[in-house]
Amino acid sequence: MSGVKMMNTRKLPPIKKIDDLIKVAQKLPAKKVVIAGADYPTELQSAAFAVKKKIIKTAILVGNPKKILYFSKQLNIEISSREYEIIAIHGEEETAKQSVIAIKEGRGEILLKGHISSPVLTKRVLDKNLGLRMERIISQVTLAEIPEQGINRIILLTDPGVNNVYNYEKMVQMIENAAEVAHLVLSVKEPRVAALSANEKIMESLNSTLIADALTKKRWKDVILYGPLSYDLAIDPDSVKTKKVEKNTLARKVAGKADILLAPNMDAANIIYKNWMELAKKGKTKMANIVIGATVPYIIPSRADPSETKLYSLALCSIFIEVKNTFKDVKF
Known about the structure:
It is built from twelve helices and eleven strands. By secondary structure, it is α/β, with parallel strands linked by helices.
């Protein structure tokens, strides 16, 4: 990943909290979203919130038209021709296809997965001929602030929702994708990345420690990475003191103040994500998601995610698009 020159002339306010995503997105031109499988209450509600907040100007609702109209009526959402468009489709395969076609035709700038299987939609997104594929992998980046765990700032997690298979090469690209979000959206010049494991020591019997060690030895640009680190050592300054991480070491630069958490596998990433999600459902944390690596930002929410998480995610995608366009001639 080449270095990213930070935008000294950028007029966007700083983003320090998840709520700032809404405030900043509202200052930008409203975007167009395609919702694949919009025939479900939470997706319609998320779209309506985003339209009301003027983050989204047009929501293309792809799915069963009878269900879309039924749920919109239940939620008192007026499906006007100016703000909403329905693409009447039955069946997941056709929903995925028509959603991607709408994006490719330029009718949408953000793709939001609704009431549709993630593998079905992602397969269409990654189709070499008809999809939205680019040269790198796609991976999910989650932004969260978690006061319950002493994290009163935005921290990033990758990859809890896309890649089932983790290896060294894929993890390098996951880091690059997450770092791009940190650079462009949060203006973090050198994000600190914690390669997570169950143990901080290199163990031949624990593969995650070996990959973390290999990633640590890689020469990174605009990223400070160290691993293996346990979850508590990555986020908690008190754990750094208790476990006596030596000063003036690479580990000390990351431990207790990681900006990005790199999970060792999908299981670990998803478990962390679901823990945060349960806190979000109780109003004890705030989260936003973005999948990058495709031609447009892509949101793959969990079915149990609250509508607020989807709204924050739409705001995040809007900001990412705006800032990325400023760097459209820069190769990442």
